[in-house]
Write a structure and sequence with these properties.
Shape of chain A: globular
Radius of gyration of chain A: 13 Å
Order of helices and strands of chain A: EEEEEEEEEE
Strand content of chain A: 35-45%
Number of strands of chain B: 18
Helix content of chain A: under 10%
Radius of gyration of chain B: 19 Å
Distance between the termini of chain A: 18 Å
Number of strands of chain A: 10
Largest sheet of chain B: 10 strands, mixed
Largest sheet of chain A: 4 strands, antiparallel
Helix content of chain B: 10-25%
Low-confidence stretches of chain B: none
Structural class of chain A: mainly beta
Oligomer: heterodimer
Shape of chain B: globular
Strand order of the largest sheet of chain A: 2-3-4-8
Number of helices of chain B: 5
Low-confidence stretches of chain A: none
Mean pLDDT of chain A: 95
Distance between the termini of chain B: 59 Å
Number of helices of chain A: 0
Strand content of chain B: 25-35%
Mean pLDDT of chain B: 97
Largest interface: A-B, 27 and 34 residues
Chain lengths: ~110, ~300
């Protein structure tokens, strides 16, 4: 396992990109109260990062995850793409758990082929 | 039809502050801003206009918000505008606003408009490169690599649409507006230029393969040079903006490119040094894919020096 971040590092309701490799954050974490969901930062459309600027992964109203390359919209709970060029596909979830305020994920990330 | 090129692109956005900051960081100049939105200009006066997606003054949307809401073309003169009005009003609604701008809808579902161009002559320092065997591009003691250089986009270059029926959309631009096809990606769509410019494309259209490939794919302004594409893109990435593709150089059009994700519904590109074509050119057709999409492709990396 690896510690991804402290839950309090992510503003409630917001997202944060993490695990930088080269130019891109490999995952992003979404916090909702005491819970967090972690996703691979990989849009099923072109397999590129989703955000338009550091940590900007959500729609303006905060309700959805958005890929800012071609406007694919994803359910923020299930990762399902309900609108956009990859409609019907899903983001790859990264299993996580929270212990003592720290978000933990597996050392090895899932891949888009999992 | 003497259409000279793009004049403005009007976007309906959800997050005005983010859109504004993005365009300022891209290098455009804010020439007007209010609660309704703002106008962001290049050196020749071509511009992006931002409005709230809910603005009742915008044409109807053809894609989820945020997205492009209207493409405004500049035409050479009032006679061209009259000819367009006569031609287009034969089979579609054409509205003339208080400015004299014609508004209608193309056969791909995009709101388009025409006005006599207000493009200005570009006043900017000469950009030259030093090439052995040619006259020097820069005077002695002028240094090209300047960390503090100001890079200002020069002119609105092109826009790219996803369209539901690319043959129908192409026919509209060719038969009704007199655009020329300069090149084509087989099975994907045409690069087109209006008659009033020799630039390889001001419009590229991509066939949608599902009901959700809609709206603008990308748009860009011309910068002065490959150097400016690299330097502007470098700075943009340092500000946290996310590269989508590039830097590289396309084959069709030969333009240098660097695309970034944007809050406008598609990507926004930095572009420079596009080919010019006249009517003696025979369009090429190539299969799409990585090999034909660029002659080379690079990716930025952190600065480094030997010994570090």
């Amino acid at each position: 396992m690896q510690a991804l971040c402290r839950l309090e590092d992510v503003p409630d309701g917001a997202a944060r990109g993490l695990l930088r490799r080269g130019n891109d954050d490999q995952v992003f974490v979404l916090r909702q109260g005491d819970t967090a969901r972690v996703w691979l930062n990989d849009c099923p459309h072109n397999h590129r990062p989703l955000e338009y600027r550091q940590d900007q992964f959500l729609s303006a109203d905060g309700l959805h995850i958005v890929c800012y390359a071609h406007s694919a919209h994803f359910d923020r709970h299930s990762g399902y793409c309900f609108a956009g060029p990859c409609e019907g596909r899903s983001l790859v979830p990264v299993p996580s758990r929270i212990e003592a305020g720290v978000v933990w994920i597996a050392t090895e990330l899932p891949t888009v082929f999992d | 039809m003497n259409i000279v090129g793009l004049e403005t692109l009007v976007f309906g956005v959800e997050d005005m502050a983010a859109g504004r900051q993005y365009l300022l960081d891209y290098g455009l100049k804010e020439v007007e801003a209010s609660a309704a939105g703002g106008t962001y200009e290049a050196l020749d006066g071509t511009a992006v206009i931002l409005r709230h997606a809910s603005d009742p003054g915008l044409p109807a949307s053809n894609a989820p918000s945020p997205n492009l809401r209207e493409t405004v073309y500049g035409v050479a003169d009032a006679a061209t505008l009259r000819a367009l009005a006569d031609n287009l009003s034969a089979d579609r609604q054409v509205r003339t606003d208080a400015d004299g701008t014609l508004h209608t809808v193309d056969d791909g579902g995009y709101a388009i408009a025409f006005r006599v161009t207000r493009r200005r002559a570009i006043v900017a320092p000469h950009v030259g490169i030093n090439v052995p065997g040619q006259a020097p591009g820069r005077a002695p003691n002028v240094c090209a690599a300047d960390k503090a250089e100001q890079i200002l986009p020069r002119s609105l270059s092109h826009v790219v649409y996803f369209v539901p029926d690319v043959k129908k959309a192409e026919a509209f631009y060719q038969d009704r507006l007199g655009f020329r096809v300069t090149d084509r990606f087989i099975g994907l769509g045409p690069f087109m230029r209006p008659q009033g410019t020799l630039e390889h494309h001001t419009l590229f259209m991509i066939q949608s393969f599902n009901d959700h490939m809609v709206g603008m794919n990308h748009f860009t302004f011309h910068l002065a040079s490959a150097h400016e594409v690299l330097h502007s893109g470098w700075r943009f990435a340092q500000k946290g903006y996310k590269s989508f593709w590039g830097p590289g150089r396309h084959i069709m059009g030969s333009n240098y490119f660097w695309y970034f994700n944007s809050p406008f519904g598609g990507t926004m590109e930095f572009d420079a040094d596009m080919d010019l074509h006249d009517d003696s050119w025979s369009p090429r057709a190539m299969p799409p894919g990585a090999d034909n999409s660029q002659i080379f492709l690079f990716e930025s990396r952190p600065k480094w020096a030997p010994g570090e």
